[in-house]
Amino acid sequence: MTKAKIVYASMTGNTEEIADIVSEALENLNIEVDIDECTSVEAEDFLDYDITIVATYTYGDGELPDEIVDFYEDLQELDLTDKVYGVVGSGDTFYDEFCKSVDDFDAAFAKTGATKGAESVKVDLAAEDEDIEKLEAFAKIIVDGLK
Fold it and tell me: Which of 5, 31, 85, 129 is the most exposed place for a label (fewest CB within 10 A)?
C-alpha cells in the first residue's frame, strides 16, 4: 500500500487542521497516512514513505516557525529521489510575505530530488470551504500522479 507522511507546524491550530484535511483526503484515496507534529519526528523519516508532505505556517514577515527550522535544514540534506512531495500551509495576507514558508519548503524539497506532486496550497488563516476543496484536489493530484 502507498504510504504518506505529513509533518506539520501549527501555532494556532490552523495548519494542524490543514494537515488533517489533507490526511483525510489521502485516506479517502486509499493511502496509508502518518501525521506528526514537526518536533516529534526527524526529516529522515520521509525516507520510509512514498508521499512526503509538509504543512507549515509562516511567522511574522516571512519567517519559518522556530520549531520547524531544524527539520527544514535537515530536509535539504536528504536524497528523496523516487519520492513525491507537496507543501501546504497557512499565513496571513496582512503580511507582505504571505505563506513564504510554503515557498521555502517547496525550494527545500526541490533540492532533495523529490518530484513535486501538486502545486502548493496557501490558506489565509483558517481553511474555509473553498480552501478545503483546494486541499482535497491537492491530495487527489498527488495520488493521480503516482499512477
Answer: 129
